[in-house]
Each structure stands twice: as structure tokens, then as C-alpha cells.
Amino acid sequence: MAFPVRTFFAVKLYEKLADEIETAIRNGVFAAGERIPSVRQASERQGVSIKTVLHAYALLEGRGVVETRPQSGYFVRELVRTHAARASSPQAPAVASEVDVSRLVLSTLRSIRANDAMPLGSPYPDPSLFPWRRINQYANAIARRHASWNLMDDLPPGNPELIRQIARRYAENGVPVDPQEIVITMGATEAINLSLQAVAKPGDTVAVESPTYYAMLHAIERLGMRAIEVPTHPVEGIDLEALAQIIAREKIAACMVMPNFQNPLGFQMPDARKRQLVELLAAHDIPAIENDVYQELYYGEARPSTLKNFDTRGLVLHCASFSKSLTASYRIGWAMPGRYRAQVEKLKFLNTLTTPSVPQVAVADYLRQDGYDRHLRHVRRVYRQQARLMTAAVQRFFPEGTRTSAPQGGYVLWVELPERVDSMRLYQAALARGITIGPGYMFSTRNEFHHFIRLNYSYAWTPATETALRTLGELVAQMA
């Protein structure tokens, strides 16, 4: 894969345009909520290409200065504190806060797609490792057999054979599951949203890990709830003592966690800590929403336990999917909501009616007839090796003071940079050179991780990958 090269002139041109527009906005030339010139107008007036304007506007969107509105254009946002502002102290008391990281995440994902950039900032695994052709063959065969599919066949909870196959995999891995508890969803994201709706209401406070995967923050934001962040250890997981103190002084409606291969830290929470977490929450009758989407991507000898293993009161709402291990395009997930099962099933029906039938049956056929375990062994081997390669490259190319996580599964590396480095500035500088990263701002509502980044190592390791990491290291060194 050829590594995209950006000229110095082109980089300065779109950055200059973005800086001019931002200055005009901050000086009151364009008011909050007002539309700025269209891409074509800016191109004609400034004498630059449409591509340059698009890149400048994407940069402004990433800075949180403007926002896009479908079929309307770009509009000025209410100005927020600049990203260069110093992050709050990690020792500051946890405070529930409104959540608004979705704009930054969306801008980051758009930049990957729009600029064909090196996807070190992507949240998605490399699709080339997935047997999507084989699954598509099953789907095509099913579509030919059933010219007209009866929607009633797969109303919630979902396709019976797929549910049976999912329950069988849990049983084979030591997690006793009643198939009647499983509700099929459109990916783990829907499972998380439905679970949160089932246990909390707008205005409620939800405890989350810090840092935490931004899909959790999105769910809280979408439902009008408040997040309270709990310090999280890179090996042990969520700080149980800090969580207990928060529960003692706040009314917590739910706790959302990723005990296995947490994104972005990559840890596997020890069994003893999982048990203690379940017992602590149960003592206060607080439900736990467990995101176990990376459950199959372990580097050890056996699949890790889940919170569900230690749940005796039905308070754990377990969410997972095949998107990270088998196929992302079909978006097949599920929830095992314990005592909230009936409510989740009802919400599924009210929200999306049903999950498409053909993908459910295709995945069920693959699980029954093909070598899913063989496929998983290959993926785990690749990820484990590429985790070592990326960790070694960061240690080699980045300046002194850089530290990395030690992932036990999954495909992301959490990197702590020297404190003077601002990850948003690094994101913008890297994007100008055709590289994306996940700035630490996306993983908290409190700017706690301004000098952290997340890197994706699932994609094939190539000379271009190494070149990109060397370039990142040089940028970090300049900023530090």
C-alpha cells in the first residue's frame, strides 16, 4: 500500500484557511448558529480547490468550531473551551457531567473515510481478516431459497437457530446461559442502548470507567443521562474503592463497564475483581451493563470469565456481538439482560421492530457448519503479534516519557505521551500527513486524557505502518 504524501504547501494552505475562519468566528464575524460560506463559495472566493476547503472545514469540525447539518451546510457552534486548555487533575473528585464527545468521534471517523488515511485511529478491525465472502455465500443461498421472507419469523427475541448457536458457544466456554434470555440486536451498540433504556431514565446518573469506550458515552448522551467517571487501573480495571465512595454519596442508576480487553486500555479484569464488582453493585441493587464485544479476542489460553459468571440476582445485562470477531457488515449482536429481559425485548420491538432475518440465518449457518474457532485462532495470533510490533515501534520512535498499555486482547494500544503534548494538536498534525489517531479527548467527558492517544494495530503490518509511526514519533518529539 502506497503511503499518501502531503506537500508542505498543501498542508499550510488548508490550515491557513481553517485558522482564518476560526479567527473570524472568535472575533464575532460569524455568530453562533450562523451558516458559514458553502464549500463552493469558499473555493471561488479564496481561490483554492474544493478539496482544500473540505479539508479545512473538516479541521474546523474536529476543533469543535463548526458543525455540519445534512443538506444545509456548515454552521458555527457555540464556542467551547479550546482543546489546548490544560486537563483537569486526575485526582479531582468525580462529578457527573453532560456528555458531548460524539462530534469529535464523528469528525475523526469522517477524516479516515474522506482522506484515505492510515487508519491508526479507526475503531474498527481490519475486515480483510474476516470470512465475509463465505458468510455472503450463505446469505445469497438463503435469499435464493426464500424469495419472500416472513417478517414474523424473526420478531424479537430473534432467529431461534442463531440464539441456540450463541447459547451453545457460551455453554462450551463455561458460561451457563438460558437461550430464552438472549435477545438479538443490531450490533452491540443497540444492545447497550436498549439495556441502558431498560434500567435508567433521562436525568439519571450512570457510572463509567475512565477512560471509557466512547460508544458508552454516546449511549448516555443520546438518552439524556449523566456520566460519572470512575478511575480505572490499566491492569485491575475499575477502581472498586472509588466506585464504592461514589455510590455512598450519589444515586447511581447503573454501572457500564468492559471487564474484558477494555477499549482503550486493553486489560482483562481479574476474576476476583469481577466477583467483587458484581457483589458491590448487587449490595446496592445497581444493575451492571457489561460490554463484552471483544470476548473472543483473548491472547491467553482460554476465554475469560464474564460478570455474568458471578451474577446470582439477574442484575448483569451482558452485551456482545460478532462485529469485532466475525463480520462487521451484518451488525449482529445480542443482549442477555437478566431480570430486565422482558423490558429489553419490548424496547427492541419499539425501537427497530426486528433485526434483518437473512444476516441472522447466515451467521447461524456459518457457526454451525464452518470453522469459527479456527478463524478465531488465526485472528488472535495475528493481533497478538501486531500488538508486539506496534508496542516496539512506539517505544523505538516516540520520545522519552512515552508509556504504553499492555493489551491482553482486542486490537487497540493506549499510549501516554509526554504531558506537554496535546493529542488534539497531534491529531490535526498527523491528519495533514495522512495518518489518523484516536485523541484521548474522545474517551472522557472531563478532558482527563489530553496527552493520550489510542492506536489500532489490527491492520496488516507494512512498511507504510512503520513509516506512519516514525512520523508520529517525530511529531510528538516536536511538541514535547
Automatic annotation (TrEMBL):
The lineage of its organism: Bacteria, Pseudomonadati, Pseudomonadota, Betaproteobacteria, Burkholderiales. Gene3D superfamilies: Aspartate Aminotransferase, domain 1, Type I PLP-dependent aspartate aminotransferase-like (Major domain), Winged helix-like DNA-binding domain superfamily/Winged helix DNA-binding domain. This is Histidinol-phosphate aminotransferase. It is an enzyme of class 2 (transferase). Keywords: Aminotransferase, DNA-binding, Pyridoxal phosphate, Transcription, Transcription regulation, Transferase. Residues 11-79 form the HTH gntR-type domain. The gene is hisC_6. Its EC number is 2.6.1.9. GO terms for molecular function: DNA binding; DNA-binding transcription factor activity; histidinol-phosphate transaminase activity; pyridoxal phosphate binding. In the C-terminal section; belongs to the class-I pyridoxal-phosphate-dependent aminotransferase family.
